[in-house]
Design brief:
Layout (H helix, E strand, L loop, with lengths): L5 H11 L3 H8 L6 E4 L10 E4 L6 E4 L9 H4 L3 E3 L7 H8 L6 E4 L6 H9 L5 E6 L2 H14 L4 E5 L12 E7 L12 H6 L2 H21 E11 L8 H8 L3 E4 L18 E3 L9 E8 L33 E6 L2 E6 L3 H9 L3 E5 L1 E7 L2 E4 L1 H5 L9 E3 L2 H8 L4 E2 L8 E6 L2 E8 L3 E4 L11
Parallel strand pairs: 5-6, 5-8, 6-7, 8-9, 18-20
Antiparallel strand pairs: 1-3, 1-4, 2-3, 7-15, 9-12, 10-12, 11-12, 13-14, 14-16, 16-17, 19-22, 20-21, 21-22
Length: 445
């Protein structure tokens, strides 16, 4: 058995009673790696063992590959994600919110749950992914760009700043920072860091965040509150401030099917590793009552954007109307339905990291295409490409300059490994200058 803090064992025994030993034994068993696959980029070479039962396009693997050397990983064909957290896919399915909904992922980095959300909505739906820390928000941006959708916005900064926009959301996912009890098998350091002070500190932050979420939620909208920890102080004690005044609890219909644990009828649902094929995860679904007071939306004066590019058909094959927006010297394309939302956030002076799809930068008469185009699910398949073998692909992903692999008159070429589009090179006639983002390059493997 893994050595666990005595206080933690006392707490968990109050939950599990005669299941406590089975729980401890489960933590000593090997951990299966799981992945969520991109339904719009279906090709991969993963050693699949079986399906994750509660999440479509998600699988357990027979062994852990060296993801760093897999071009499909870098091209966003799949995302490595803990299986229990994917139970949110089944929750989203149950809510069945329909088309054109607005979703906020409040503590979104590194982005796995945002990808689950993007898979649940069509292109008319809109995902706003936020993370308080700029460095984490950059990782979030990279992962969402790889997934290839255009209907998202990424912001960073103090979560209180989101209130400035006046936006309201149909669904808010608050996967709150927590003490990490559910990660004890996966991250041994979490055991050493666990103590009452950390639990109390996390609970304070969680209480602040859920009150912000309550203000941002639409009337009849939903909040899904989740943590990767078990204790009631970071779960029931946080959501109970909303239950009786503004919100009502919504049951998860598939709880018994997946053998989830509940302390009582109205408590949170818990994934325990001896009951479910995954790590620890806890969640609750809340719906805002129709009688709840609503903040009046702010009205903004219109802002005109420069349209330096009038057509994007040669880059993206997009089946909907787009707005072209210049932002911080780069040119972005977004769904025309979402341009007003993006304008609201620009005018609110909330720190924006990304939105839509970055097309690139116009420098004089030259247009420098963005790496993000290469990752888009709307990439124009007629753009000129160069096929690379595995060694050449890894050289490219290390941001090395490539030799001329085949003669071409085209200035800009996409490079690909089988079905994985990796990015751009510029044909200098002497060599192929690598335009893979330097901050994403492979350092070693």
């Amino acid at each position: 058995m893994i050595a666990l803090p005595v206080k933690f064992i006392e707490n968990i025994s109050a939950f599990l009673k005669d299941e406590t030993e089975a729980f401890q034994n489960a933590l000593a068993e090997p951990l299966d790696v799981s992945v969520h696959c991109n339904k719009n980029k279906p090709t991969h070479a993963l050693p699949i063992k079986n399906n994750v039962p509660w999440s479509q396009n998600s699988y357990y693997l027979m062994e852990r590959p060296l993801f760093t050397t897999d071009p499909y990983f870098h091209a966003g064909h799949y995302y490595v994600q803990e299986a229990s957290s994917m139970i949110l896919s089944a929750v989203f399915d149950q809510l069945n919110l329909g088309k054109g909904i607005h979703i906020l992922d409040m503590c979104a980095a590194p982005g796995g749950k945002s990808l689950l959300l993007l898979d649940q909505i069509d292109e008319t739906g809109f995902l706003h992914a936020h993370d308080a820390t700029p460095l984490r928000a950059e990782i979030l941006r990279q992962n969402l760009v790889k997934w290839g959708h255009m209907n998202c916005l990424i912001t960073t900064g103090n979560s209180n700043s989101l209130l400035k926009s006046g936006m309201k959301y149909d669904l808010i996912l608050l996967d709150a920072p927590c003490s990490g009890e559910g990660m004890f098998r996966k991250e041994k350091e979490a055991i050493n860091q666990w103590n009452d002070s950390k639990v109390n500190y996390c609970s304070k932050i969680q209480n602040e965040l859920i009150q912000i979420a309550a203000e941002l939620c639409k009337e009849n909208g939903y909040i899904i509150y989740s943590t990767c920890t078990y204790n009631t102080l970071e779960n029931e004690s946080v959501t109970q401030i909303l239950d009786t005044t503004l919100f009502e609890s919504v049951p998860f219909c598939d709880a018994q099917i997946y053998n989830l644990h509940q302390l009582n009828e109205n408590s949170h649902y818990r994934c325990f590793p001896h009951r479910i094929h995954g790590e620890g995860f806890t969640f609750k679904i809340l719906q805002k009552k129709s009688s709840a007071n609503q903040t009046i939306h702010k009205k903004w004066s219109s802002t005109s954007f420069k349209n330096k590019l009038t057509k994007i058909d040669h880059l993206l094959n997009v089946p909907f109307d787009c707005s072209i927006i210049e932002f911080k010297r780069n040119i972005f394309a977004s769904h025309a339905l979402h341009a007003q939302i993006i304008q609201i956030f620009i005018n609110s002076n909330i720190a924006i990291c990304y939105f839509g799809c970055c097309l690139g930068e116009q420098k004089g008469d030259d247009f420098i295409p963005s790496h993000d185009i290469s990752q888009s699910i709307y990439l124009n398949k007629t753009l000129p490409t160069i096929e690379l073998d595995l060694k050449q692909s890894l050289d490219y992903l290390r941001a090395n300059t490539l030799p001329i692999i085949r003669e071409s008159k085209e200035k800009w070429l996409l490079v690909k490994y089988n079905e994985a589009i990796l990015g751009w090179v510029k044909n200098n006639r002497v060599n192929l200058k690598n335009y893979y983002p330097k901050n994403q390059r492979i350092i070693s493997y």
